[in-house]
Design a protein that fits this description.
The protein is mainly beta. It has no helices and ten strands. It has a six-stranded mixed β-sheet, with no helix packed on it. A hairpin with a 5-residue loop joins strand 5 and strand 6. The termini are far apart.
């Protein structure tokens, strides 16, 4: 069974940076489009960024120019570099495969203070 383990969240001041990691058990990540999602309190989960197996990327307008998604197929890991963080980026962040969802991991909490 494929498992997703997110890490790297924390508390940071506005303008700061964090780098999230998503470790995927198995090698399925190497042939799959992978994505980062986030869910803020009282809001629906939303797509933040996605990366194809070929390395093409796509971002939500709200994070474009500030976040960078990348992948290391040798490590079966997907990353999200988050710069110029804003309080509205506060959420639990998850990774998954948007074309065919895997069981969600526990996520990693990101809190941005003003």
């Amino acid at each position: 069974q494929v498992q997703l383990v997110e890490s790297g969240g924390g508390l940071v001041q506005a303008g700061g940076s964090l780098r999230l990691s998503c470790a995927v058990s198995g090698t399925i990540v190497r042939i799959s489009t992978m994505a980062w999602y986030r869910q803020a309190p009282g809001k629906q989960r939303e797509l933040v960024a996605a990366i194809t197996s070929g390395g093409s990327t796509n971002y939500a307008d709200s994070v474009k120019g500030r976040f960078t998604i990348s992948r290391d197929n040798a490590k079966n890991t997907v990353y999200l570099q988050m710069d110029s963080l804003k309080p509205e980026d506060t959420a639990v962040y998850y990774c998954n495969r948007p074309t065919f969802f895997i069981a969600w991991g526990q996520g990693t909490q990101v809190t941005v203070s003003s």
